[in-house]
């Protein structure tokens, strides 16, 4: 089968279109013929060596949408089922194997393109908003990297939940109109958001801040986080660790919560099934959608990575297999 592999860490040019052996499934697994897979920023970090050790040759990719072509005995799935999944060993390939606990059926009325855009960002965003952040309608929330996949999803989910004040941050203010169309009330840059948040809240600060950037953005977030507020930390796309002190939280009764979808997939996969069911229904009924920034053929994965690294896109980037 065809796949994108890499044999060393490096820039996008280490990604190679190659023929490799088709994976074999074990107990509790199924084999999926991939239609589309999404490109996530975590793929970039893993490619360059900032996310764990490399077991080369390495196949990147977190999620996929496709059709089941083989199942283990006594499977709850059938050949021909349309699914989304978090596969084992990467998703930039024609066929992938996946633990059935991380495979979820999708209806015939949901396109593979929208299905491929949603698994990582929508399941993560739903859990961040409702389980980790426990956002209320009366909250003022800040969503960093608001034009990215998770940011786009968090804004829509917050709007759907009736949150009254949604503030999005972007690296390039030219993305402001896109973020406002998604449902944000205010859009500002990383340089100005602290002052903007304090201004619109009469110096009270935001109740919940969702931070996937870290670095300097973390300390700036704490500068505008309200008493009893929560900073939800779920990434570090800046490549730098955010700094905080115990004095940042105890006297102000504020909370710092961390969350990782990857950790949850590995250690508590059954937690994802009810969330997947909810977001699949929201997509199928068109209450949620994700703009597709661009679709690349699998062999052009390097170009897709270069687009992600440029940050000059809005929505999701997909690979067509």
UniProtKB/TrEMBL annotation:
Residues of the signal peptide: none
Domain (Enoyl reductase (ER)) ranges: 10-319
PANTHER family found in the cross-reference section: QUINONE OXIDOREDUCTASE PIG3-RELATED, QUINONE OXIDOREDUCTASE-RELATED
Gene3D superfamilies named among the record's database cross-references: Medium-chain alcohol dehydrogenases, catalytic domain, NAD(P)-binding Rossmann-like Domain
Lineage: superkingdom: Bacteria
Pfam families: ADH_N (PF08240), ADH_zinc_N (PF00107)
InterPro entries hit by this protein: ADH-like_C, ADH-like_N, ER, GroES-like_sf, NAD(P)-bd_dom_sf
The entry's keywords: NADP, Oxidoreductase
Protein name: Zinc-binding dehydrogenase
């Amino acid at each position: 089968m065809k796949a994108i592999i890499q044999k060393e860490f490096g820039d996008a040019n280490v990604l190679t279109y190659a023929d490799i052996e088709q994976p074999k499934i074990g107990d509790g697994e199924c084999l999926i013929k991939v239609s589309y897979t999404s490109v996530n920023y975590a793929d970039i970090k893993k490619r360059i060596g900032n996310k764990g050790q490399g077991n080369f040759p390495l196949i990147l990719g977190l999620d996929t949408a496709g059709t089941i072509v083989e199942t283990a005995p006594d499977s709850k799935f059938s050949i021909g089922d349309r699914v989304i999944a978090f596969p084992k060993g990467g998703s930039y390939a024609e066929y992938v194997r996946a633990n059935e606990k991380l495979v979820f059926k999708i209806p015939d009325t949901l396109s593979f393109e929208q299905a491929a855009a949603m698994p990582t960002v929508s399941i993560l965003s739903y859990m961040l908003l409702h389980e980790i952040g426990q956002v209320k309608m009366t909250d003022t929330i800040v969503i960093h990297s608001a034009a990215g996949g998770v940011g786009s999803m968090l804004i829509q989910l917050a709007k759907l939940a009736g949150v009254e004040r949604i503030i999005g941050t972007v690296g390039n203010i030219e993305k402001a109109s896109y973020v406002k169309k998604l449902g944000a009330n205010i859009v500002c840059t990383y340089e100005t958001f602290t002052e903007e948040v304090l201004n619109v809240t009469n110096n009270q600060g935001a109740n919940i801040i969702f931070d996937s950037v870290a670095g300097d953005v973390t300390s700036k977030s704490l500068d505008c986080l309200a008493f009893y507020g929560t900073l939800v930390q779920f990434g570090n796309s800046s490549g730098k660790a955010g700094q905080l002190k115990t004095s940042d939280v105890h006297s102000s009764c504020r909370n710092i919560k961390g969350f990782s979808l990857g950790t949850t997939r590995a250690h508590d996969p059954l937690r994802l099934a009810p969330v997947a069911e909810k977001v699949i229904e929201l997509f199928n009924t068109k209450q949620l959608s994700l703009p597709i920034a661009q679709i690349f053929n699998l062999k052009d994965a390097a170009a897709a990575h270069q687009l992600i690294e440029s940050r000059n896109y809005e929505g999701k980037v997909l690979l067509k297999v």
